C-alpha cells in the first residue's frame, strides 16, 4: 500500500491533488485541520492535512516463465501481506478520528461504507457502528479483504463474537412450573402463550394449563379460551390475588402453567405495583417480557426498564414480520444482556415462532433474512 500525506488550504484543493497523483481509486485514510506555527503564536493560518492511500498492483508480470511452469506443480498458496508500521500508524490515527466524529462514513472505503449504511438502515446503534468501522478497516488493509462479500462475513463474525455468550433458553424452555408473560397492550402476549403451550403440549407431551390475569379485556379472555379449547387444556380466570392462588392450587399436578397478564399502560407505576402485589414470584419462575419490534428503540428501552421491576429473566420479540429493522434486538440486548428466548413472525399457532439464536439474529442484521 502506498500512503502519502498532502497539505492544502482547503479540502477540495487537497482532493484535487490526491486524485491527480493517486488516481480515482485513492482512499482517504485520515483528514484533519491544522494550524501553522506563526510568529510568537500569532498570525497562525489554518490548513488541511490529508493522508491518502492506494493499493499497488500485487501481480508481478515480469516473473520468469520457467519459474511459473515449475510452481504450477506445487500447491498454490496465497500470502497475506502484512501492513507496514507506517500503515498501522495511519490506521490507528483513523480509528481515533472515527471514534470522535459522527460523520466519519466518507472516510471509509466503498465496501465498508455499504455495510455501515446497511446496518444504519437496520437502526443499529451508532456506538456499535463506531466500534465496527475500525474492525473492518483492519481486515480491509491488514488482511486485504476488499470485497463487500468478504467484509460481510467479517461483520457477521464481529457480531457473533459479541453474542457468543448470549444466554438462550433452548433446550431448557419451560422447565419451570410457572411461566409468566408481561408486556404492553398489543404486543401479542396471548398468541405467544398459545404457541409456547402448543409446543409443550404437542411436541413435548407435557400436561399444560392456562391462567389469565387479563380481566380488563373480554376479548382477550375469549381468545385464550379459544386456544385452550383447541389445545384441549384447562383455563382459569383470576380476578383477584386469592383467585390466582386457588388456580395455582387447582393446577398443581400440571407440568407447566402459562399465566397471561393484562396489557396495560406500562408507564403507570400503579400497574407494575399492582402486579407485584398480585403475584408471589418464586426464584425458579420463568418471567418473560414480550416486546414488539414495531415499537421505537426508545420505547423498547423504556418498556424493558419498567417491566424489569417484575424480576423479568427472559425476553421474546414479536412481529418481526412487520418490520425491516432488526437492529433494536441487538441494541437492547447489548445494553441489558438479558436471556434471549424467541422471535415470533406471524399469527399461526404453533408455527410462527423461532429460536432466538445468535446466528439467526446476525443473519437478520447483515441482510440474509428471507
TrEMBL record:
Pfam assignment, any one: SRP54
Signal peptide: none
Annotated ranges, domain SRP54-type proteins GTP-binding: 176-367
Listed CDD domains: FlhF (cd17873)
Domain AAA+ ATPase as annotated: residue spans: 175-317
Similarity remark: Belongs to the GTP-binding SRP family.
Listed PANTHER family: FLAGELLAR BIOSYNTHESIS PROTEIN FLHF (PTHR43134:SF3), SIGNAL RECOGNITION PARTICLE RECEPTOR SUBUNIT ALPHA (PTHR43134)
Protein name: Flagellar biosynthesis protein FlhF
Amino acid at each position: 500500500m502506498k500512503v502519502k500525506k498532502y497539505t492544502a488550504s482547503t479540502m477540495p484543493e487537497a482532493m484535487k491533488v490526491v486524485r491527480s497523483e493517486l488516481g480515482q481509486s485513492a482512499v482517504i485514510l485520515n483528514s484533519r485541520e491544522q494550524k501553522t506555527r506563526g510568529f510568537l503564536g500569532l498570525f497562525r493560518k489554518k490548513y488541511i492535512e490529508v493522508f491518502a492511500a492506494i493499493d499497488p498492483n500485487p501481480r508481478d508480470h515480469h516473473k520468469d516463465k520457467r519459474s511459473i511452469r515449475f510452481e504450477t506443480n506445487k500447491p498454490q498458496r496465497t500470502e497475506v501481506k502484512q501492513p507496514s508500521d507506517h500503515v498501522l500508524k495511519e490506521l490507528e490515527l483513523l480509528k481515533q478520528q472515527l471514534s470522535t466524529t459522527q460523520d466519519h462514513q466518507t472516510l471509509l472505503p466503498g465496501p465498508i461504507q455499504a455495510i455501515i449504511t446497511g446496518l444504519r438502515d437496520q437502526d443499529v446503534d451508532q456506538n456499535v457502528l463506531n466500534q465496527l468501522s475500525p474492525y473492518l478497516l483492519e481486515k480491509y488493509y491488514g488482511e486485504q479483504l476488499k470485497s463487500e462479500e468478504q467484509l460481510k462475513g467479517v461483520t457477521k463474525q464481529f457480531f457473533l463474537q459479541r453474542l457468543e455468550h448470549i444466554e438462550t433458553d433452548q433446550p431448557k424452555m419451560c422447565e419451570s412450573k410457572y411461566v409468566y408473560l408481561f408486556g404492553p397492550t398489543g404486543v401479542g402476549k396471548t398468541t405467544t402463550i398459545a404457541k409456547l403451550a402448543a409446543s409443550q403440549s404437542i411436541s413435548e407431551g407435557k400436561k399444560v394449563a392456562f391462567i389469565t390475569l387479563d380481566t380488563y379485556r373480554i376479548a382477550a379472555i375469549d381468545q385464550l379460551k379459544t386456544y385452550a379449547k383447541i389445545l384441549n387444556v384447562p383455563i382459569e380466570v383470576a380476578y383477584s390475588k386469592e383467585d390466582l392462588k386457588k388456580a395455582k392450587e387447582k393446577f398443581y399436578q400440571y407440568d407447566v402453567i402459562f399465566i397471561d397478564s393484562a396489557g396495560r399502560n406500562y408507564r403507570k407505576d400503579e400497574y407494575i405495583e399492582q402486579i407485584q402485589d398480585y403475584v408471589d414470584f418464586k426464584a425458579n419462575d420463568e418471567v418473560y417480557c414480550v416486546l414488539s419490534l414495531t415499537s421505537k428503540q426508545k420505547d423498547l428501552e423504556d418498556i424493558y426498564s419498567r417491566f424489569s421491576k417484575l424480576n423479568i429473566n427472559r425476553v421474546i420479540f414479536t412481529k418481526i414480520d412487520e418490520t425491516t429493522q432488526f437492529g433494536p434486538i441487538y441494541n437492547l440486548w447489548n445494553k441489558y444482556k438479558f436471556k434471549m428466548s424467541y422471535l415470533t413472525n406471524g399469527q399461526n399457532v404453533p408455527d410462527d415462532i423461532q429460536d432466538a439464536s445468535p446466528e439467526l439474529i446476525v443473519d437478520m442484521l447483515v441482510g440474509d433474512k428471507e
